[in-house]
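In this notation, each integer encodes one residue's backbone shape. One such record reads:

___
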Amino acid sequence: MGRLKAAIFPLSFLLLLFIFFGDRVLPSPFNFYSWQLRTGLNRMLGGAAPQIRQIDPYERTEKAIQEQERR
């Protein structure tokens, strides 16, 4: 169990290096896997985050103007 605990930090560090820099440094089959893993993680984490609605400061004013034009 002690060997496993000692290996967790170096392995997680290597995994992060593979994800972030693998497509730039590694040879052909591995750089594609790194890029694919990073892209998949970005999509998964991006889909988990709530969508932020862009706030238009003039939206209420534009609606009021359109309502006045209809009358």
Notes: The first helix runs from residue 2 to 25. The chain has a mean pLDDT of 89. The two ends are 77 Å apart (CA to CA). Residues 24 and 62 are 48 Å apart (CA to CA).
